[in-house]
Amino acid sequence: MQTGKPRAALLASPGMGHLIPVLELGKRLLSHHGINITVFVVTGDASLSQSQLRKVSEAAYDLLDVVLLSPVDVSGQIDKTTSILTQIAMMVHEALPSLQSAILATEVPPIALVVDMFATEAFSVAEELMMLKYVFITSNAWFLALTVHAPNLDNEVDQGDHINNQRPLLIPGCESVRFLDCFEQFLRQNEVYFRMGTEISTADGILVNTFHELEPQTLAALNGTRKLGLVPNAPVYPIGPLVRPVQPDLRSDALSWLGMQPTGSVMYVSFGSGGTLSAEQTTELAWGLEKSQQRFIWVVRPPVENDSAATVLKRNSSCTDFPDYLPEGFLNRTSKYGLVVPMWAPQAEILSHPSIGGFLSHCGWNSSLESILNSVPMIVWPLYAEQKMNATVLAKHIGVAIRSELLPSQGVIGRSEIEAMVRKIMVDKEGEAIRAKATMLKSCAEKALSKGGSSYNALANVAKDFEIRMQSQNAKAD
Ligand code: UDP
C-alpha cells in the first residue's frame, strides 16, 4: 500500500532528445505536484555510467531516483536501412524484461508508468502490473495529431493520395500536412510508427511538450476528437515547454567569448545532437555566415554525404581538431566576429546568453523550445525525423522563424540565401515582426509554466489522477 504522495515511474528511450525532457518532467512532477519519481533509462551504450547520466541534468539527478536499465544490444537485428525510430523501438522491446523486474524491485510500487513516445510498447508492462499508463510526447501537438491519426487513415485512399499524388494530408480540426513536410516514417509507411499511433491512443493520458498559446488550434482539435469518437481516446495535456535547465556556473570558451559580444548580436548555429551536412552545404554555410558579416557561434561537425542524421545515437562521436573541411582561410577571416566549436556546445547556456540574437537550427523540438523560452528568433533548417513538421509549426503556424523555400533534403541552400536569412533575423527591418513574436512567446511560455498557468494546471490534473488511483487502490486493500 502507498501512503503519502503517489510514486510514478518514467521511462526514457535512448537519445538525449528523450532523456532531457523526461528528467525535466520528473522534476516538475516532484517539485510542483509532490509526486515521487523513479526514472528508468533504456540504453544501448554499455559504457554509459550513472556519472555521465548525472551530467545531463544534475538538478534532476539529485532529486530523482534514476535507474539505468541493463544495456541492450540490437546490432544483430539491424542493417543500414533500419530507421532510427525502429532501432529505438527495438531497444525498448529488448529492455522490457529488465524494466518489469526493476519496477517489481522498487520498494514502493509505482502507481503509473509514463513512457516517452518511442517507448509505448512498455504499456504491456504497465498493464501487467496494473499501473496507469501515460505517454509523454517530446515533440509538438501537430506531430501527435499526425501520429494518432495515421492508423485511422485508409491505406489506399488517404495514405496513397498523400504519398503517391503528394496531396496535403488532412487531419480533422488541424492544419493539413504538406507532402514535403510529412514525417519521413509516415511516408515510408513504417509499421513501427503506425503501431505507436495505435498504442498512444490506448493511454490513460497523453502529455505533450507544448503549451496552449503555441498550438491552440491543434490542441483543441486533439481534445475535441474524443467527443467525435475519434482517436486519441485519451485526454491530451499540454505541459510544456520543459527544457534542460541552464547551469549558471558553467564555464566554456564559447560562453567567455559570448561575454565579450554586444547584446543580441550573435547568431548561434547548431544542428542538434545528431545533425550533419554534406561537404558542399558546409562550404555554402561557411560563406553565407562570412558574407552576412554578423557575429556567430557555429557548432560544426565533419561533413557526411547523404546522411543528415549521421551522429544520432552516437554519443561517443568526437572531433577535437580544428576543422579542415571549412573554406580555406575562413577561420582567419572570421576570427574577429565568429567562433567555431567542434561537435558540441553548451546550448542551453548559449541560448540564454544576452548576446544571442538568432538561432540557425535543425529545429529538433528541444532546441525549438529552448529558443522560444529565450525569445530567440530562428532560421529553421530541418534535417531528419519530424523536423520538417517542426519547421512549419515555427515558421508558418507561429511566425517565430524563417526558412529557405528549398528544404535541405531537396538540395544545397546557397551562400547568398543564407547571408540574406541571417541578416533578416539579426538586423534587417523585415525581421522585426519575427523578433517581436519571439519576445512575446517567451512571456506566454513562462506564464503557462508558472503556478496557475495552463501547463501547470494540466500537470496538476495528471498528478490528481495519480492520487485518485492511489486512493482507490488503498480503499481496495483495506
Ligand atoms: N544540445 C547541446 N549541445 C549541442 C547540441 C545539442 O546541448 O551541441 C542539446 C540541445 O540543447 C537540446 C538537445 O541537445 O536540448 C537536442 O535535442 P533536440 O530535440 O533539439 O534535437 P535532437 O538532437 O534530438 O535531434
Automatic annotation (TrEMBL):
<dbReference type="InterPro" id="IPR002213">
    <property type="entry name" value="UDP_glucos_trans"/>
</dbReference>
<keyword id="KW-0328">Glycosyltransferase</keyword>
<dbReference type="Pfam" id="PF00201">
    <property type="entry name" value="UDPGT"/>
</dbReference>
<comment type="similarity">
    <text>Belongs to the UDP-glycosyltransferase family.</text>
</comment>
<protein>
    <recommendedName>
        <fullName>Glycosyltransferase</fullName>
        <ecNumber>2.4.1.-</ecNumber>
    </recommendedName>
</protein>
<dbReference type="InterPro" id="IPR035595">
    <property type="entry name" value="UDP_glycos_trans_CS"/>
</dbReference>
<keyword id="KW-0808">Transferase</keyword>
